[in-house]
Amino acid sequence: MIVRWMAVGFVIWIAIAVAFRFVGELGFQAGPGGVSWLFMTLPIGLLILTYLVLKLMKVAPTDRAEAASIMAVPGLLVGIYEINSFHIVFPNLDASLQPEFSALMFASYAAVIIAGIVSSRLEGNV
After folding, report:
1. How many structural domains comprise the chain?
2. pLDDT digits over 94-125, tens only?
3. Can you spell out the DSSP letters for 37-52?
4. Which of 40, 47, 61, 90 could lock 115 by a disulfide, CB 3.0 to 4.6 Å apart?
5. C-beta atoms surrounding 97 within 10 Å
């Protein structure tokens, strides 16, 4: 189970990194509009995506929190590289956005973990 969820996590977090690399400048811009909208939408989107993945793969409610936590681990590993090499990985983004990007990624990791915990608690009590 661990290997499967690590693989799912790597696919999700690499897809997010690729999206930021190639089209990140469209929505992640310095100023009042870009960063705040992503802080409101990306974690919620990942919460919903995590819940759907757990449901579609028919994970037992008792295992969902563990599966979601394991899905977040590859993001932490990918995120370390992205944050340390921000200007190399994301030449299309303003270098001053590095702190906001870091905070956004950690909010997204938390959303994935919370999705697993909430979904296991909601359906575990039914």
Report:
1. 1
2. 888 898 889 989 999 999 999 999 988 877 55
3. HHHHHHHHHHHHHHHH
4. 47
5. 20
Determine the Cα–Cα distance for residues 87 and 93; give it in Å rounded to an integer: 8
Range of the domain at 45: 2-124
Mean pLDDT of 57-86: 91
DSSP 63: G
**Given pLDDT bands bounded at 50, 70 and 90, which one contains residue 45?**
very high
- Nearest by Cα to 67 from 125, 25, 30, 12: 12
pTM of the model: 0.86
User: Reduced to 3 states, what is the DSSP secondary structure of residue 9?
Assistant: helix
- Hey, what are 30's tokens? 């310095």
Write the single-letter amino acid at 124. G
CB atoms within 10 A of CB 48: 12
Amino acid at 31: G
Neighbours of 114 (CB within 10 A): 18
